[in-house]
Amino acid sequence: MQDTQSINKARAIYYNLFANFFIPSSDIKNYFELFRLLNLLKDSSLDEASEESIKNILNLLDKDSNQSLIQEYDDIFHNPVYEKVRQTASFYDEGVESGKKRVEMIQFVAKTKLRRDEKRYFEYEDSVGFIFSIMSELSNLVALGEKQYENTVHCIFEQILNPFVDEFAKSIYEHKKANIYKELMVVLHSFIEFERLYLEVTKPLKKEKAKKQVTDNWGDITPEERERRERNRALKALGPKN
């Protein structure tokens, strides 16, 4: 029992580490939290590769300012000069930013007592930052004895995170502006492999990258309006309960 509790606490810490890297914040307190988490994991890493990468991240991070990390994040995920890495499960599944995987995540979260803090987090529910954050909180609750969330944790990993995380990590690792995040992907790779063993979930088969298919007669509408209609279509297809 104690071993299981310790494992779930450690899993919560890892998920929290990844969440902090993928939920951008200008608050310097959040930045310093990264140092605390990295130092916590440094001497109890999953393997030699992740141990080395954690040390490299600590050396690469500016001890006084988060500006270089914020700039690297923007270059990888937002800068139009470079190929932007997408962060939602829906994109890797369907080629759209708001699709079935987002709806599934909304439904999973609705089964828990946790809710998205809209003041802190503005991205979709199937964005990696939100997924990591929810998995951290749920793993911690399981460690505290709330076993009813074990199945939710398993389902989110198996159905949402596992199918796309390898492709997502590879895109970051190979990105020309990735430096700190490249090292982070080594840590993420080791952790995901551990999660697959622990949760008994197999690595997904490689599939052809999803491409956005325009199979409608909506005509010339704005990207925002198209995204809204796609989300409504996904909701209708899944038949969510009111």
From TrEMBL:
Residues 214-242 are annotated as: Disordered. SUPFAM superfamilies: TorD-like. The keyword Chaperone applies. Keywords: Chaperone. Residues 223-233 have a biased composition (Basic and acidic residues). The keyword Ion transport does not apply. Pfam families: Nitrate_red_del (PF02613). It comes from the Bacteria. PANTHER family: CHAPERONE PROTEIN YCDY, DIMETHYL SULFOXIDE REDUCTASE CHAPERONE-RELATED. This is Molecular chaperone TorD family protein. It comes from Aliarcobacter cryaerophilus. The lineage of its organism: Bacteria, Pseudomonadati, Campylobacterota, Epsilonproteobacteria, Campylobacterales.
